[in-house]
UniProtKB/TrEMBL annotation:
Keywords assigned: Folate biosynthesis, Magnesium, Metal-binding, Transferase
Source organism phylogeny: Bacteria, Pseudomonadati, Campylobacterota, Epsilonproteobacteria, Campylobacterales
Gene: folP
Reactions catalysed: (7,8-dihydropterin-6-yl)methyl diphosphate + 4-aminobenzoate = 7,8-dihydropteroate + diphosphate
CDD domains referenced in this protein's UniProt entry, alphabetically: DHPS
Metal-binding keyword on record: yes
Name by which UniProt lists this protein: dihydropteroate synthase
Any GO MF annotation of the entry: metal ion binding
EC number(s) per entry: 2.5.1.15
Keyword Magnesium in annotation: yes
Reported cofactor(s): Mg(2+)
Gene Ontology cellular-component terms listed: cytosol
């Protein structure tokens, strides 16, 4: 007998090849994935009940020592269990008091999560002050760059006319449209929208309307649908919408950013903005935690490490850390020399749940992602 440890992303496929019956594949798959769920401000009564319920099925709840004697009214806790455990608890806690019914509903969102195909979103800027000079293009040069991106493997092209880097100042929508109009007209005339999906990085209704009338399908809003008019417009065109989180605005977002808990604070933001989007009839949503938009290095790293948390919303997750300053904070480097760091962040983001990667370097990302997918898909049997 010989033994080696196996790591398989698709355990169901592995079990089928092993020869397990269909019922066994379903049961064993749910037992194979371990989840660790941080619960903040859990009522002491709920903590004691949940602890016993978890232990009774083979899961566990890590709690502070004061829970047993109820030294405080609320505690933070860590629920540890498999998909099968969460499935059982999501039913069992429905009959329990102290807010456990709400927890039961929440647990359901962490099981049977959607999986999405990885997509590359290439960046093209029509302004002359974007932080990466090589992303700036005008007129026919922009079209040539887009065609190259399509050839290199881009699934989406994100066009922008105003810089949102830290310290940047917004311009009137008329000026933004003036920068973008020649490119938008060429995209429409050459029917490039039939080859790739186009996204507009804007929060100005009039600018977005012009793009949506020229084949664009995605509204990439760094304000996270703050403007009701953008919501109405997106709904009327049935556009897909990127809801991005940003603390404050580009002029001051990097001035002492603070969060009580960056994961939970952004989760609450998404919950509110998703509800708002749905209220306007928007269903096709992408979430973007906004790396570098009102975050310290530690905030960015925590979001990347815990990105999988946001999958519970059931939407695609977008990450855009291409050549950003957080790379320089870890390894001092110029913008031109940050491709390796960019690839490291984006590949890790895919492993942690991202399905849309916004980047400047499409060809290099395509190669890296295809290799990552090849490694993840290989089967032992």
């Amino acid at each position: 007998m010989r033994v080696f440890k196996v790591k398989n992303k698709n355990i169901s496929s592995f079990l089928e090849k092993l020869g397990c019956d269909k019922g066994g594949v379903n049961i064993l798959s749910k037992k194979s994935e371990l989840h660790t769920l941080y619960i903040k401000d859990l009522h002491v009564g709920a903590a004691n009940i949940l602890k016993q319920d978890a232990l009774s099925i083979g899961a566990d709840l890590a709690v502070p020592t004061g829970v047993v004697i109820a030294s405080e009214k609320y505690f933070d806790a860590l629920l540890i269990g498999t998909t099968k455990h969460f499935e059982i608890l999501s039913k069992k806690e429905l009959a329990q008091p102290f807010g456990l019914k709400n927890l039961a509903h929440y647990l359901k969102t962490f099981i049977n999560q959607k999986e999405f195909k990885t997509k590359i979103m290439g960046i093209v800027n029509a302004n002359d002050d974007s932080f990466f000079e090589k992303s700036r293009f005008q007129g026919s040069n922009a079209i040539s760059k887009m065609e190259l991106m399509i050839e290199d493997g881009a699934d989406i092209i994100d066009l922008g006319g105003v810089s949102s880097r830290p310290g940047s100042i917004a311009v009137p929508w008329e000026e933004e449209l003036e920068r973008l109009k020649p490119i938008l007209d060429l995209i429409f005339a050459q029917k490039l929208y039939e080859k790739v999906d186009f996204s507009l990085d804007s929060y100005e209704p009039e600018v977005l309307k012009y793009a949506l009338n020229r084949g664009f399908k995605i509204v990439n809003d760094i304000t996270g649908l703050e403007n009701d008019e953008v919501c109405k417009l997106s709904a009327s065109y049935k556009a897909q919408v990127v809801i991005m989180h940003m603390q404050k605005d580009p002029t001051n977002m990097q001035k002492d950013p603070f969060y009580e808990n960056v994961i939970l604070d952004i989760d609450e933001f998404f919950e509110n903005r998703v509800e708002k989007a749905k209220g306007f009839g928007i269903e096709n949503i992408i979430l973007d935690v906004g790396i570098g938009f009102g975050k310290t290095l530690e905030h960015n790293l925590l979001l990347l490490k815990n990105l999988e948390h946001f999958k519970h919303f059931g939407y695609e997750l977008l990450i855009g850390a291409s050549r950003k300053s957080m790379i320089n904070m870890v390894v001092p480097s110029s913008i031109e020399d940050r491709l390796p760091g960019t690839l490291a962040i984006h590949l890790e983001s895919i492993k942690n749940g991202a399905s849309i990667i916004r980047c400047h370097d499409v060809k290099e990302h395509y190669q890296a992602i295809k290799l990552q997918e090849a490694i993840q898909s290989v089967e032992i049997l």
